[in-house]
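AbfB domain-containing protein
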Amino acid sequence: MTAVVVTALAATTLLTAGAAGASPARAAAPWTPRPAPLSTPWTDRVPVDHPLPEYPRPQLTRPDWANLNGLWDFAVTSRDAGQPTTYGERIRVPFVPESALSGIQRKITANDRLWYKRTFTVPAGWDGRRVQLHFGASDWETTVWINGRQAGAVHRGGYDAFSYDITPLLNRGTNTVVVSVYDPTETGGQAIGKQRVQDVTPHAGHSIVYTASSGIWQTVWLEPTPTAHITRLDMVPHLEDDTLRVTVRGSTAATGAAVRVTVSTGGTTVASATGTVGTELSVPLPGARLWSPDDPFLYDVTAQLTGRAGGDRVGSYTGMRSIAVKDVDGVRRPVLNGRFVFQTGTLDQGYWPDGIHTAPTDAALKYDLQKHKDLGFNTVRKHIKVEPQRWFYWADRLGLLVWQDMPSMDSGKTPDSAARTQWESEYRAVIDQHRSSPALIQWVDQNEGWGQYDQARIADMVKAYDPSRLVDNMSGVNCCGAQDGGNGDVVDTHNYVGPGNTPTEPVRASVLGEYGGLGHRVTGHEWYPGGGFSYEDQPSPSALNDRLVGLLDGIRENAMPAGGLSAAVYTQITDVENEANGLMTYDRRIVKVDESRVRAANRALIAASRDIGPPVRLPVEQYVSLRVTTPGHTDRYIRHHDGLGYTEAVDSGSSELLKQDATWKVRPGLANKLCYSFESRNHPGEYLRHRDFRVRREAGDASALYRADATWCPVRGDGGIRLSAANFPGQYLRHIDAELWLARSGGTHAWDDPRTFTEDTTWSVEAPWAP
């Protein structure tokens, strides 16, 4: 299998001049890692000379390559200075100078320029081939020289890979590479995500933004290729006609060359097709085994230029799956392989206390994704950061649905035209780099209005550039001044603690891009002891478990079937610096929650989505009365009195006022048209709503809060329906001691008493007492 080959590929031993690649003109400076604010289980397992030795590009593999990670000479100068004559420090690449694992651990500002230098010798076996120098990523403006001559153009971008053909610049024997990087972080206009210039040691404040990562932060490596060679495989599964569509991209010399693409499994060829570089070809795969989180099956793929002997040959892999949005029982839902599966995931920031942007090892990179699987999640939202290609490889292998954010520009600025041009160019480069990952199902353009502009146009641009995936034009359209472009495949709100409901629409699927944020600090595992922040602190692990499982159960019982919610992303998988709301501590040493309980809740949610059935329908624009179903009280109905909600016995001999008080007009939900609102019969314009948990009849004030409080989402109950608050799935309209409350079984209030809770929250829809 390709996956095994990719993991096992070993780099060619690279010959270096001087100790650990130091300049031969002087002795190497001493080097040691710095103490990390928190050490992870992998901190002490990072090799000094060969960190991250794994093959860095799993979807385009060749057998020969050479890893340049390790100790480089390092210097920091003023922004406008030329190349330094001396390098007084050494840095462990690819860890950024702000990190402990780099050995530098120092704040980098917009006044600084970073300089890296090392020597290498090209292996003799590469004679006659072109030599490519690859950077997984370097943040932000990177210039490269080989033997004193600049290699290609300056690269601008912090999250996309880039390469140079350095063959004309090479010497026989020892070669010197110098890299200069300038990174202004938030003082520039580029994509920065959560990065901010700040002290690199723990400190108070900065709750949702983190230490910046400047310079080289992904693997640097060499690779020999023929002059005519393959540069990328764009692979799109088409289940509708049982084909894999493949476009082989190549160097200028390979344009129009003949190519063969072969799909295999276990060493046995399944199918192949021939075509030319730059044109789409179809590989027939009838009866293909489909990729999904439950069965993340991957086919091996090879592509070879066939026009001449010894033509370039690369290995890859693919998964056959489809993703779309369609009507499911009258509700717009995302469908994987033609079926609705609820997407339950976490927000994954991808930060580390020892490496910041860079995971200390490949095992560490895999670990966070494996924990998603262990906890029963099937989705991960990579939040305004783009990971190395090996992260996508592990998501593909383990089976996780990926929402990939494009990193935001600074939240406090309106980007100018140059910043917009750069951001869109980098976005397209990121799409190109990861467009063949089967795990990646959705692009998230912008988040909570940070650096927002042209939302609708950008969503259309992304959809046209990659029509095979869903597009979210804005995550958190209800937050922070964000503006919804109105298009894309999903409408996405944020709700802390939530989960709440995203209002349904006739075209887009409703998703919850962020909710949760439950916090629990673990002594000895805090980035800044006592400084942790969360959206709702929990006093103990048991309280955290109960609250989290309650949120997941609320989605399963109400938000999904009654509110039309199709996906929910919990904040977050780990603590990050001063955010203490992770399911794990920042050092990854403690899982705060009961894995088996959380996994069971997630698995139950996913299982329920497979057989969800149509939502409960009530008679819109008609009058009804709502009767108690609790044994011994079935003659009682919901009524209002002096503006508050009660239950009271009603019969044919009751007063006309009581009969009118116990009659309600069913309206489409004020906050969600899939749900309902109940308008008073004798007080038109006033609705049954909850406020401070008490349920009352109240006039609207046109606010979003009122509309949500006055919207109820019904699910089937034993002998009737249960009415959940649209903005608090899992909390129900309940009668207790004749009063109406918004209640949660086993909660902390008297009205949350679990005794007869189900019966007390089940209502029978009856003919109106006052037609």
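thats it. The chain has a mean pLDDT of 94. The two ends are 70 Å apart (CA to CA). bye
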